[in-house]
Design goal:
Elements lengths: L26 H15 L3 H10 L4 E7 L3 H10 L4 H4 L3 H10 L2 E7 L10 H21 L4 E6 L5 H14 L4 E5 L1 E2 L2 E2 L6 H9 L3 E5 L15 H19 L2 H4 L4 E4 L10 H10 L11 H7 L1 E3 L6 H8 L7 E2 L9 H11 L4 H15 L6
Parallel strand pairs: 1-2, 2-3, 3-4, 4-7, 7-8, 8-9, 9-10
Antiparallel strand pairs: 5-6
Length: about 375
């Protein structure tokens, strides 16, 4: 039987107090999540996985990919993408969700998004992909949500798509890549879009990609191995040290893969305003204050090392369950998180459901 214990967080250089208390999720959501989690915790190994699948699905997966038909066609025409992306089906998603006790998966298109495409093609593909996702949400009540794609380098196209996706399609939020060519999310080019997202208090999910500088940088390493985590770290830093985190405080950011390498580099993040004149004044409340407002998912990082590093600086109330399906399975992450021993039962219930409900209250029903 796996022992679950609270993380030993006192004494961390950046934490001079005990952990902040969790924001309580809804009573119904917490009891549902905690009850199912307790059932799974009661047994171990393969039997634990069977118990998790048998319990009523309650988890919310914020990092789950879909492949709209027109997107697959474009990937074939432009020769990008991989077999897992191209062979995705809604049936495969539902089967994986059911095995892992996932009630709802938030859908988003994976990297590279629309980056290889010309502006007119990018606009069209965003519209078609977002409409396809909205149909899946409507056809499978309660099982899916939608983070809509934008042609971010196209300001006018992005503003139009925000309006259509959020107002007409009722998307739950917006999905952005961590970088677009040679620009990260704090770049001035994107200010009009950030202003609109802030005005709408939008939920913005980000997914890593490889920037122009770093595609095929080292022949022995695929970008997914190192560059994806690094690009997430770069865009977090760009948002914070451009001053955008302060300026656009109503954007609710979700960063994939436990924030990339940010937890390991936290001391350099904290000291940056002391060393870089350009960064002075961008974090008047302290860098850690900004980082603790963001949300981070568990996709591809549901292991003791990654979760211990993240939990040492980020309160459990800001951690969300994510799987990166179809690149990993839901059950991988359920089992991996349980085996870390980093979180208490109550914290696990919040990570797997309660925290997402605060961001996506419509899922409570």
């Amino acid at each position: 039987m796996t022992e679950v214990r609270a993380p030993a967080l006192r004494g961390c250089f950046c934490c001079d107090q005990t952990r902040p208390s969790l924001s309580a999720p809804s009573r119904r959501g917490f009891m549902l999540g905690a009850g199912a989690l307790a059932l799974a915790m009661a047994v171990g190994g393969d039997h634990a996985r069977a118990q998790t699948a048998d319990a009523k699905p309650f988890r919310i997966d914020v990092h789950h990919h879909l492949s709209p038909p027109t997107y697959v066609t474009a990937s074939n025409d432009l020769q990008f993408g991989d077999p897992l992306m191209k062979n995705w089906t809604i049936e495969k998603s539902l089967a994986d969700m059911d095995k892992a006790g996932i009630a709802t998966a938030m859908l988003s298109v994976t990297t590279p998004g629309i980056q290889p495409m010309k502006p007119d093609v990018a606009r069209r593909l965003c519209r078609e992909s977002n409409e396809y996702a909205a149909k899946l949400v409507a056809n499978h009540p309660g099982r899916f949500g939608n983070f809509a794609m934008l042609p971010l380098r196209d300001t006018e196209g992005s503003l139009r798509e925000i309006e259509y996706a959020l107002d007409t399609l009722k998307a739950d939020g917006i999905a952005l890549m961590t970088s677009y060519g040679d620009k990260w999310l704090g770049d001035p080019l994107f200010l009009p879009v950030m202003e609109e997202l802030n005005r709408r208090k939008a939920l913005v999910y980000t997914h890593p990609t490889a920037a122009n500088c770093c595609v095929n940088l080292v022949p022995t390493q695929q970008p997914v191995m190192i560059e994806f985590g690094t690009d997430t770290t770069r865009t977090i830093a760009d948002i914070v040290f451009s001053g955008n985190a302060q300026k656009f405080r109503d954007i609710r950011w979700i960063f994939s893969h436990a924030g990339g390498t940010m937890p390991f580099l936290i001391e350099r993040f904290v000291r940056n305003p002391l060393l870089d004149p350009k960064a002075k004044g961008t974090t008047p409340d302290g860098t850690l204050t900004e980082l603790k407002r963001f949300y981070y998912d568990t996709a591809q990082t549901s292991n003791k090392s990654a979760m211990s590093a993240l939990a040492a600086i980020i309160p459990p109330s800001q951690i969300l369950f994510g799987t990166d399906f179809p690149y990993r399975t839901g059950i991988d992450h359920v089992k991996g998180l349980r085996e870390t021993g980093v979180f208490t039962d109550e914290q696990m219930a919040s990570i797997e459901r309660g925290n997402a409900l605060k961001l996506l209250p419509r899922l409570a029903s």
